[in-house]
Amino acid sequence: MTAQRWADLLSTATELSLDTLLSGADQDWSRPAHGLDWTCRETLDHLALGLVGYTGLLVSRPTDRYVTLFATLDPEAPVPDCLDGLRIAAALLATTVRDTDPDARAWHPWGHSDAGGFAAMGITELTLHTHDIARALGLPWPLPDDLASAAVDRLFPDAPSGHAPPDTLLWCTGRASLPGLPRRTRWQWDGAL
What we know:
The chain has helices at residues 3-22, 40-60, 79-99, 115-137, 145-155, 165-172. By secondary structure, it is mostly helical. α2 (40-60) runs antiparallel to α4, α4 (115-137) crosses α5 and α5 crosses α6.
């Protein structure tokens, strides 16, 4: 898949996630996100941190470590403003993915990766944590097939076949069981090419 296509998928994931999260902006974000130790608000901060971190890795291309750039959302800001911060973080990653040389690689603890791999990580983070927050807030979140399929195909080479892509992604990340397969208690993706 081309870098432009990955950037487009990441942008789509961002818009769909933000639309869903904005619809619950007036709710209590101090409640725990579904299945996580973080609150919904802390999960949002984790998302911004991750997307900016992936951007930093692609820009600096370290071979053995995280970068020292960290981004957080203003803890005093209202949720809609924090969602705008998330939009900025995702746009930075999408632009970097689009503009990164196809041969470039950067370190990640779960596999040195290319721009497409970091886009898939961003898509995974956005869609899954939107799932976690939406479930906690009682919001509908139909995880899109094309986004789930792209993430599974790129990051989870051991994924079982024959299931709907969203169900497979939820199983791969320990959020659901599949017929004949219990819910995972430990998981990680494989960002390596």
